[in-house]
Predict the structure.
Amino acid sequence: MSNIGLSLALAISLAGTFPSGNNMPDILAIFQRAVANQGDPARLQHVFQKAAQGKPITVVVIGGSITQGAHAQKVEYQWGSQMHNWWKTTFPKSTVSYHNAGIGATGSLIGVHRLSDHVLKHKPDLVAIEFSVNDGDSQLTSETYEGIVRQILSQPQQPAIVLLNMMSQSGGNVQHRHAPVAKHYNIPMISYRDALFPEIKAKNIAWSDISPDSIHPNHIGHTYAAALVNLFLKLSFDEFTRVGSVPKPIGEIPKPLYGTLYDKAWVINPANAKILENKGFTEVHDRVWKMGLQAQNPGDRIVFEVEATSIALVYRRSNAPAGRARITVDGEVVNTAEGFFDQTWWFTPADPILNNKPGVHKIEVEILPDKHPQSKGHQFQICMILAAGD
C-alpha cells in the first residue's frame, strides 16, 4: 500500500492480522462501498495539474478530535498526515504545504464560523472535511455543513473538497445529513463507516481492533481512513493521466440547497465585542480559542451588542468549580447554560441563541445563584460569540 501514501510500517501492518487475530480486510475489497459519492473530478484535476507542474499546493483538513489526531499515536499516523503524504510522494516536484485544523468536540456549527481563520486564510487547493461523528442530527447541521462547503467553493483559487465520514462504535454518524450536500454540490464523499462497519457486523473485525474507545480510531483506524481517501485520490489521478492530463472545466457553484445564511459567518472575541454593561467579567486566554471572558460570582453579568442574523454562544464546560448562566437575547430568556461537567475532560459547546433574525441584538449573560450539586463554585467562561448573516 505504499503507493497510496501510507506510513511504511502501517502499510505492512495492514497486510496482516489485527491484535484480535482477525485478518485485516483488503483495502480494494472494501473500497467500492466506501465511495458514498463519486463527485465531479474537475476541481481535483486542476489541483493534480498544478502539483504535476511543480507548483506549490496547500492541503488543509478540518474536523473534530479524530482529525486533530486523537489516539493516532504519532502525528505521521493521523489520517490527514497520511493523506498529505500521498500528495508529497505522488508529486515530488511540488512543495505541498499542510495544515491540520482539527479541534476536538467541534462540529459544523463552530466549523463554519472558524473556517475563515483556520482554513481559508491558508488559501487551500484542497480541503478535506470530517464532522460526521461530532455533528448532531438536525437541520442546523445540514445548513452549517452546506455553509462550510459553499465558503470553500467560493474561494478565488477554486479549491477541491473531499468529504470523509467516520463512525462511532455503534456505526452511528450523520452521513445522512452530509450526503445531500455532497450530492447537490457534486463533491467526493468517502465513508469509513460504509467500508468497515459491515466487517464489524459480520465479526470479521472487532471494534477494539480499530479503536481504543467508543469513537476515536487508533493508528490502524486512522490508516484505514487514509487508505480509503488516498486510494480515491490515486484512482482519480490515474484516470486524469489516462485521458491526457487535461482538467475538465470547473462549473458554476450550484444554487443553495438549504440557504445562504452561513455563506458569511465569523467569530467574535467577546473581549473585543461591543460591551454595553459589565459586572465581574474579566479577560482570559482560553487554551483552545485563545480568547474569552470569565466571572466567578452569582449576579455577575455582561451585556453585548451584536449585529447578525444568527448567533451562538460558545462557553466552557468542565469539572472546575463552574456555575450556570442565564442567557437573554433582546429581553427574552433563551437558555440556561451549564458550565459544570462531571468528567475529567472538558469541551466548549456552541448553543444557538438566535436564529434567522437580522438586526442589532442585545445579549445578556448572568451567572445564577444555583449550580450543579457536584460543583464547588460559580465560575462561568464565555469562549466566543459566533455570528452569521449578511
